[in-house]
Amino acid sequence: MSKRSRRFHRNPRNPQGTVRASALCAQVRRALEWGLAELSDERFDGLEIEAVIPHPNVSRMLVVLRHQQEHDFEASEQTYHALRGAEGLLRSRIAEAIHRKRTPHLAFALIGSDATRAGEAEDQSA
Length: 126
Known about the structure:
This protein has 126 residues and is α+β, with helices and mostly antiparallel strands.
């Protein structure tokens, strides 16, 4: 294992990863908050970022979002597809904020009401 990969290797005492990975997750979260606020899509109104975690490492981040209002399954599914469509723009905002050679890929999970099923249904079909 090279020195570079050891820096981001998961520590069994810290299940979320290393301090550097946690700092990167915080930077990605801030950039996503700005990026989502910048988008003028009504489907993103009321979305709140619950967590950003390495999935399975820092090259891919799982973004867990929660609806502040109740949504039905169809609205949640539309929101999920809109997030997937905006992934490129969101990644570009992340790249501007974190100044790294490679920008992490994003995976989304919507929680709250029936939203969880929208993300799970899409992931199973992919």
